Amino acid sequence: MTEPPSESKTVAFATLGCKLNQVDTQEVQQLLASRGFRPVPFDEPAQVYVINTCTVTARADFSDRQMIRRAVARNPDALVVVTGCYAQTSPDAVAQIPGVDLIVGNQEKYDLAALLDSLTKRERPLVRVGDIQRAVGIPVAPLTRFSGRSRAFVKIQDGCQHRCAFCIVPYARGGSRSREPEVVRDQVTRLAEAGYGEVVLTGVDMGHYGRDLVPRSTLAALVRGLVDVVGLRRLRLSSILPPYFTDELIEVIAGSPRICPHLHVPLQSGSVRILRRMRRPYTTRSYHSLVERLSSIIPDLGLGADVIVGFPGETDADFEETRALIEALPFSYLHVFSYSDRKGTEAVRLPEHVPPRAIRERSKALRWMSDAKNLAFRRRLVGRPEEVLVLETRDRATGRLVGLTGNYVEVLFQGPDEWMGRFLTVAVTEAGVGRTLGEVGP
Questions:
Q1: Annotated domain spans of the chain
Q2: Distance CA 159, CA 354 (A)
């Protein structure tokens, strides 16, 4: 085993994009810490800057480049490392940015500690980006702590087998690969022992979990083996595609009080024609049936969905089908995305691109629907006691504590910092536009 550096170096991380990127950053940060690197905030001077990038949209690429330039400007003598999805898909573009010293792919980032041992400032960056499509398995990076005091995230799966027409992620993350159940259970156990009240399971295509393992496993089997971890109060599942909701998985989710009554089930469009054009692996009929089943057997289910507005070829009639489906289903929130071209995807080459003005108007209409559904959902909680996990940051506008319910509602209430990270019972007193208020009883 390589010895840690004789003199501790400071390292600062910037993470762009999804929750999975945040988990990756935490894992790499702990690997570096075990080798003697001392983490500092990104806004402080550091000897090494690591920018973990996103490439889900062209705007994300722009934000990546801005963050890289900020690091270079903050300390021109620092080593600047770029990793993540933009580094994986566009290493040549990253190499053109002055001041970058090392470009590391999504699989190679787990070797960052060894690469930094001999890295020095360079005229041209060192590039360590392999063929992500050949990646097998996920390197083990023990995670015993997470930023904050309340919630922790555990990566159980990476990559994706689907080739949706609008998505660049499979080219950035590779094919679906899973972590061994024993590794996942060990991480969850360590985090529960460290006092984290909630653990969130994450992945790119999480429902595909276990199909690449020998012997094969399933998400249902993994979750069933986690709910009895000593000290675990809540287990939350992140986004799962509709086809992966097997009878066994639904039974496990509905049958354990430790699993949060909150699911995120991507929709993208309520038009059968547009779903086919997007290459999504489900129909509106199957989606509708699944949501009705979930909401009927999971009391007070918090239900979220992603929707893409203005996909090439989307007509007014297609959009109305989307709006009608959303209106008919019991969503508690939506993530509405305005379509924009992403180089390297099939959608870029499709005809009948929707005018930007129509996309803006349709997006606004769905965001209004999302706000209305969210308000109606939160109003049903008024007058009820809710168990909340107190988060580690206060609400900026009011200065109140923020408690997260199992069904993913943030409740604001008065209290001391000592309550952060604890579970409390809060009486919900008010649900208004944009916020929910509560009180802790005597």
A1: 10-130, 132-260, 271-380, 385-440
A2: 30
